[in-house]
Amino acid sequence: MSPQGTAAYDGLADLPPLVERAVGLARRLGFANSCRPEHGLLLHALAAGAGTIGETGTGCGVGLAWLASGARPGTRLVSAEIDTERAGLVAALFVDLPHVAVLPGDWRELYRAAPFDLLVLDGGEYPPDPEELLKPGGTAVIDDLTPASTWPPRFGGQVDQARIALAHPPRPGRRRAQARAPTWPPSSPPAAFP
Fold first, then answer.
1. What is the value of pTM for the model shown?
2. Which end of the chain is more exposed for a tag (fewer CB within 10 A), N or C?
3. CATH value at residue 62
């Protein structure tokens, strides 16, 4: 999700047809926070090397459309969208692609289809632990992490719980989906502070 991402498509030509349809849906719904074109090109390239792809935060399906447009034949794509009505509208965009599924619900829905070669985390206050959803050697793309210059990191005036969750994954043997959401303050900041 990118603020004003949908507007970034204004005047662009030669987009994959599925991306054009998803951007059209975003415009009709007044959804401004679509995947930006440059992010879409990255997703398109990464999708070519994956056999299974999971995504959180479908939005209006623009990022998913980039992924589906870049994926090899036979690649399975699964995306979870918490807004049930929007999930249904996006699923209709992909109705002719039986290898693409849009699940209504939060990121926990992805456990039904895991593990993935490529996992795109875009949205959600408390993200999953990528290791729980990835195949060994899989790739995670984490969106929505704006640069932070202080600890604790803040977003929108509040402590950024998603960043804290990613910096402090659960202990081995404990699934985040079953664990309580992380709280502030953790015992220490992460070793590698962005």
1. 0.81
2. C
3. 3.40.50.150
